Each structure stands twice: as C-alpha cells, then as structure tokens.
Amino acid sequence: MSSLSRDDVAKLAGLARIEMSEEELVSLASQFGMILDAVARVQDVDLEGVAPTSHPQPIRNVFREDVVHPSLTPEQALSGAPAQEEQRFRVPQILGEAE
C-alpha cells in the first residue's frame, strides 16, 4: 500500500493554503494512500491494441452554412430596456468604484 505521512499531507495542505486539524491530517494521510493505490492499479491495465483517446465517444465538428437571418433593429432590442444610452443598454457601473 502506498502511503503519505502526516507531514506530507501537512506540506500539501500548506501549498494549497488549506488549514487542517491534526485529526484531518492523519485521516487524509491514509485516504491519500488508498487513492495512490487505485491510481497504481489503473497503470497496470493492459492497453495493448487500445487506441489513445481524449473522450469516450467519437467527436466530430458539425458545420452548417453561415447564413444571415433577419434580426432585431437596435430600437427593437432596446425597446424594453429600463435605461439606454447611444444605442446600448445602460447598466450600473461596477468596476472602478471606490473600494
């Protein structure tokens, strides 16, 4: 069984900036060991004849004609807006405000 020490888990927690109690450090040390064992078992699988893939289903792009369709005029699009300015929606400023 692979294992990580309590100190290894504490170092990982420090790198991730996660505060952990002593109980959590000890508990996670054994849980990480089980995870490492599971990963090691996956690496032992015979992959002879299995093509590498990034997705379980075949992926292909579906293309369509790029056709221009009629759309709303600026006036129609802004007709229900509570506030507008220069043919644009006017919204409250959120960036650059006093902090």
Automatic annotation (TrEMBL):
Check the record and name the Pfam families matching this protein: GatC
Task: Give an example GO biological process.
Answer: regulation of translational fidelity
Extract the ranges annotated as region (Disordered): 71-99
What InterPro entries has UniProt attached to this entry? Asp/Glu-ADT_sf_sub_c (IPR036113), GatC (IPR003837)
Q: Which Gene3D superfamilies match?
A: Glu-tRNAGln amidotransferase C subunit, N-terminal domain
HAMAP family, alphabetized: GatC
Q: Which PANTHER family match?
A: GLUTAMYL-TRNA(GLN) AMIDOTRANSFERASE SUBUNIT C, MITOCHONDRIAL
According to UniProt, the name of this protein is Unannotated protein
Q: Give the organism, scientific name.
A: freshwater metagenome
